[in-house]
Design goal:
218 residues, mainly alpha, Helix Hairpins, 434 Repressor (Amino-terminal Domain), 2 domains, 13 helices, globular
Length: 218
C-alpha cells in the first residue's frame, strides 16, 4: 500500500488542509473514490484488490469523521495533542463554522460513487470463498459477523451511519455480549440490518441463526 496509507492522518488521506470546508471535504472524498475505484487505471496498475478495499474503507472512515462537526473536533484535538497539527490550525478549522445540518451524514451528493462502491461490495460477497463458508454455517456468531466485515474492508462506523444502530450495540453484537444487547425483538432486526448493509443474504435466515447461536451460549 502506497507509503503505508493506513498511517496517514485523515487530512493526508483526502489531501486537504485541516481548515478545509465541508464542500472541500466532500469534493476531496469524491476525487479520492474515483482514483481508487477498481476501474481507475491508476488504482488498477498500482494496487491489488485487497489494497484498494482497505484504502476505500479508510477513506470512508476519514470522510465520515471530518464531515461531522463533533467527530471532527475530537479528531482535531487528538491531532493537536500528538503535535501533528498546531493549535492555530485547529482553531482555524473551528472558525470555519459548524457544518450545516443538511451536510451531516448526507450522501445524496455522493450517490453515484456509493452505487459503484455498493456494486463492488456485492461482487466481493459473491466471490469471497471465506464469506461463503462462514454464512453456510448452522451457527453464526458475532465473531463471524466481524470476520465478514473485515473481509469486505468495511469499517464498523459505516454500518453505524447506514443503519443508525448505536455504535456500542454493533460492538456488542460482534463480541457476543448478550447482557449488553437490547431485547431479542430489537436485536434480530439490528442483526438483519447489519447483514443487509454488507449485502449478505439471506439476511432473515442468517440473523435467525445468529439469534439461535446466541441463545445457546447463555
Amino acid at each position: 500500500m502506497e507509503k503505508d496509507f493506513a498511517e496517514l492522518n485523515y487530512y493526508e488521506m483526502l489531501d486537504i488542509k485541516p481548515d478545509a470546508t465541508a464542500l472541500e471535504i466532500r469534493s476531496a472524498y469524491n476525487a479520492a473514490l474515483q482514483m481508487y475505484q477498481s476501474d481507475s487505471p491508476v488504482s488498477y496498475s498500482f494496487f491489488s484488490k485487497e489494497e484498494r478495499s482497505q484504502i476505500l474503507a479508510l477513506l470512508e472512515k476519514a470522510y465520515f469523521t471530518l464531515i461531522n462537526e463533533i467527530q471532527r473536533e475530537k479528531y482535531n484535538n487528538e491531532l493537536t495533542r500528538m503535535g501533528i497539527i498546531g493549535v492555530m490550525e485547529n482553531d482555524a478549522a473551528v472558525k470555519k463554522g459548524p457544518v450545516n445540518i443538511f451536510d451531516i451524514n448526507r450522501e445524496k451528493d455522493n450517490a453515484a460513487m456509493r452505487k459503484i462502491h455498493n456494486a463492488e461490495l456485492k461482487i466481493e460477497v459473491s466471490q469471497n470463498q471465506r464469506i461463503r463458508e462462514i454464512i453456510s454455517r448452522q451457527d453464526i456468531s458475532g465473531a463471524d459477523l466481524k470476520e465478514i466485515r473485515h473481509e469486505l474492508g468495511v469499517p464498523i462506523e459505516k454500518i453505524h451511519q447506514e443503519t443508525k444502530i448505536r455504535l456500542d450495540y454493533l460492538n456488542h453484537i460482534e463480541a457476543d455480549e448478550a447482557k449488553k444487547l437490547p431485547a431479542a425483538v430489537f436485536l434480530k432486526g439490528f442483526v438483519k440490518a447489519y447483514l443487509k448493509s454488507l449485502y449478505i443474504e439471506p439476511a432473515d435466515e442468517i440473523s435467525a441463526r445468529y439469534m439461535s447461536s446466541l441463545t445457546h451460549k447463555y
